[in-house]
Amino acid sequence: MKENFLIDSSGYVLKLLQKILDTNIEVQGLENLPKDNPRIFVANHFTRMEALVVPYWLYHKTDKKVGVIADDSIFVSFFGEFLKSIGALSKSDPNRDNIIMSDILQGKKDWLIFPEGMMVKGKRIIKEEDEHYSVKIDGVTKKVFTGAAYFGLNSQLLREDYLHNKINNPNRFVKKYFLESIDDINDNETMMVPINISYSPIRTGNNFLMDIAKKLIDNLNDKLLEELEIEGNIILNSKIIIQILTPVSLKNITDNVHILKDESSVHKHHKHHNHTEIINKYRRVLTNDFMKRIYENTTIRFDHIFALVLYFTGSDIMNKQHLKRLIYLVAIEVKETKLFYDSDIETDIIKLISFECFEPFDDVLSVAIADGIIIEADDTYIINKQNLLEGYTHHTIRLKNILKVVLNEVLIIDDIVKLVNSYSSLDLDNINFILSNKLIEEEKKEYLNDRSYYSKDMDLKAEEVGSSYNLNAMDTKNVVIAVHGFSSAPLEVKEMATYLHQHNINIYAPRLRGHGTTPSDLQRYTWQHWYNSLSRALAIACIKYENIHIAGFSAGGLLALLSTRKNCPQLKSVICINAALKLNDSRIKTLVPAVNLWNDFVSSVHIEDLQKEYVANEAEYPEINYDKHYVKSIFQLNALMNETNESLSNVTLPVLIIQGKNDPVVDPSCAKEIYKSIHSKTKTISYFDFDTHVIIKAPNNTQVFKEILFFITT
């Protein structure tokens, strides 16, 4: 039973621990865990709680206890008693080595060892010329310890002695290593399993645990307060990332190298000396091997890229867009490498370069400003690199300069250092050129990958239907981003795009994610994905043009209205055409609730095979529009409608509202509702006498296009 994990400790502690940690621990690489082997886990060491958190989670995932060997300083107060109760040992325990060797030989308990020997609060790691790693603390450099390698190599050598019947005195051996029988030794080889532990993000500030400690403990010293502040914020506000890396086989090193074939020539102590010789030969090499894996497989986070860019920039003054675009470029390059990276450089990162708040950037920027590393000045950032590099002391650096800690963590990783350094030497024009090309290529690749995924789907549209496109005009200043509607594709807006282009307007027509392929593709994505597709188009346009207008049809009109939340100085106006704020379409208004009711019923009687996933759609233009609407996709459309409705009062840009009087899909009253709700000083509403929804493809659609052209050119 897992309750036995606490041995004599209170079950309450485990329940409290699990409640806190279950919400913010991410374990990756479980497939790398050897299943039946005795295991020695080796990890980097940054916090006191790692001696508890990692064994707890390894046990939680493997049903096998994990002992800890750590610095004596960790074994203090209740925390120390708790560690002892789960089988942890301090470095000074007189029976330490033999207890650990016993567990590893039998494979009854795994062990976690921190080769750095103590918490490295500043994460200052040095790779020496002879390839070994050292820890630098308060100016003193110490090599990473090789004790973990010793336990691994020695246990495997002893195991092979047993397997080859080379143990001279079994009784003495059994007593020394606390075995009941010599046959308790596990036949499987010892495996060294490197683990990288990282945190996203690492922040300072008062927290709940500090408040509790201050109430319960008198005269807290500064060292303990520092640890409570850092580790309390990690437990309560950060994500703990445990990366289990490819294990190191010890059998490959030790297999038969110590076994002498002529047993009669072996002195009774010879094999012991042979063990020592082999261990001394390989322990440093082995340590370098697994520490290299640990350090170079740190999970790259947004903070890392931010700190590295500041470190390598050659200027003290940097344009705000230059910094953001540079960071974005590095982030997308990281995703194309073999480096591990956190979700904070992937999820919605397009916001960083499309003039919206991107929380990871805003958060780390506030840290840099508070620590005097950055000063904001109009459109620029003033960078104080001296403050960034201030090292402070072992026990103060995490409080006074957490970005230096973050920087130190990645300066040891050659791949990311070279990447950031190469981009940081480029000026804004070069960054813009590279970025625009990468964004365009990203969009094309995304579309081709989606098409490939559904290559055998009978509903797959022709490639030209879903391809994004741009039409270049002689005038290089003005561009219209033409956005298609729900379950449609860029080809839907081609006539409008062509008309405006013929009148010297540049056009960019993006594909919204999930569109222009198959109905099945659309149900994989949310409205936020559609919005991000438009944001990418805006980011491209911002690099190339001075004046940007967004013209969106139907659901595209809603996205155009939402885009006004962007603080983009080049975005001059939006045009929404039959914006789908409310629907007239009875198929969606009545059939979808009926489908949901039916699905709930068949699910309640456990006949899930009869559930209906979509409703049929009689498309106006079947070569472009999907012939079915999946329920999941309609829910996303409804969510987009609600989001837009709640945001209308924040719209202040000039807006042109175009509405067909007899639209069979969108309720024509939406136009007036939009007009009344927005707070734009310049707003125009125009009705046209059409009986169809897709008025941009209807006969006499040029009257609509003329209205758009007049609006954006006057």
Global mean pLDDT? 89
Strand content: 5-15%
Low-pLDDT segments, ≥5 res: 1-14, 259-271
Q: Which descriptor suits the 3D outline?
A: elongated
Which percent bin holds the helix content? 40-55%
**Quaternary structure:** single chain
Q: Based on DSSP secondary structure assignment, what is the total number of beta strands?
A: 23
Rg measurement, Å: 32 Å
* C-alpha termini separation: 76 Å
The number of helical segments is: 27
Structural class: alpha/beta
The tally of structural domains comes to: 3
Report on the biggest sheet: 8 strands, mixed
Task: List its salient traits.
alpha/beta, Rossmann fold, 7-stranded mixed beta sheet, 3 domains, 15% strand, 714 residues, 8-stranded mixed beta sheet, 23 strands, disordered N terminus
Compact summary:
With 714 residues, the protein is of the alpha/beta class. The protein has 27 helices and 23 strands. Strands 1, 2, 3, 4, 5, 9, 10 and 11 form an eight-stranded mixed sheet that branches. A seven-stranded mixed sheet has the order 15-17-16-18-19-22-23, with helices on both faces.
